[in-house]
Amino acid sequence: MIISSIDEITQFKTIVEQLEICCDFLEEDSIAKYRVSVILLDNISEILLYRSCDQLFEQDNFLKWIIPQQFPVSKKKRIKNFFDEKINIIKSKQKISKKTSEILHISHKYRNDIYHHDKHNATTIGIIAKILFNAVCDLLAETQCGIGPTTIGGYKEPFDWLSPYGLNTTSVDFLKASTIISKSLKSRIDIKLSEVSLIFCSDIESRIHKIKQLIADELPWKTPAEIDHIIKWFEFQENYPNLEDELSSTYREYVYRIAQGKPIAITPEQLEELKENFQKEYRGKAMEYKQNIAFATIDKVMQEKKDLENVQNIGKALCQYFNLDQALSRLEYYIELAALEWDRIVQREIDLRRGK
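Below the sequence we write its predicted structure tokens.
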């Protein structure tokens, strides 16, 4: 036995226990537990995908002496390192359904926001967590826990942790056990399509209302053209974050030398000209920029929301919501930046009037 190896029974038990924990969390109305569930479920899915890929790699290593190799070292490394690559290769081998793969793709992006950026939507995180739970249960059954349709037996006593699922045997048929456990766990988390559609649509409507309210209450820019001008400026800055630094580098070097009391080889007039030139070039680049997000995004999102209201299945509902959510999130972000910028402008004016 290899020292670092973990036998398949232990691997299977760990996955089942983690799914049971997530199931318990999802039965409670707790945003914190929804967040933890999304993170853990995403981890479970990656483990199952990783094991399934390993099966393909082992088979390929054996067959490469007979038929052309499918997975050279560089390709295997890329698949192991990237979540979406794992999904794509397992889906291409028809080991998981299109519905499962789409939900895992999208949920992984929400997991990244939660895990890396501490971001989540309190309104929708619960339903997203439950959709992901069902998808990971399906993944368990579709991949047979990433172990495959294998049976391991010869034990003296039945596995007590499998008893609640009616599996009182001294052997484990991974295909049968994964299917039964998946079905049992999914039955505990009831998700209705009508509920999913209602929550997603209500979230979109509420956020659009808040955007319009923020513009009406706090911004001096009211027309779509004025709003687009502001959005374009912030989008340009986001997409070219280093451009201002690059264009102003020479000017700033002179400013640094002056601040340090060192002599410079240009006149104040030439220094001012340098400043005006880089600012003019920067503004020119901004004017040429073709923006992607505009105020009209609101109308587009509201129009596409109608499709979400009439969606035919939960997986498709998540896909459509994700697309609307992404577009709306960018608009929210730029409008909030505009509100912060206007607040700074107002505060500077107040300070000037106070003589600060």
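Residues 197-240+289-353 form one domain.
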